[in-house]
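Deliverable D4.2, example record:
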Amino acid sequence: MDMRIRRFKETDVFAVADLAMSTFQKYNGLDFYDEEAITNTLDYFDTTKNTKERLLEKFSKKSIFLLLRLVMEL
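Output generated by the structure prediction step:
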């Protein structure tokens, strides 16, 4: 397996948003007792509620955004 780190590209936006949403749901969602806070956080990354442009705008506010890509050779 080969691992590569690269900068975020516009074509990554939906995959990154889905990953952020599912990770929060699985690992952080149960830590909150405020259902509205959970919903707001999940809605922030929800690809069915945000356009590509809106997600890019949200991600562009981060100072560093790198992706780790695992390349598996079969």
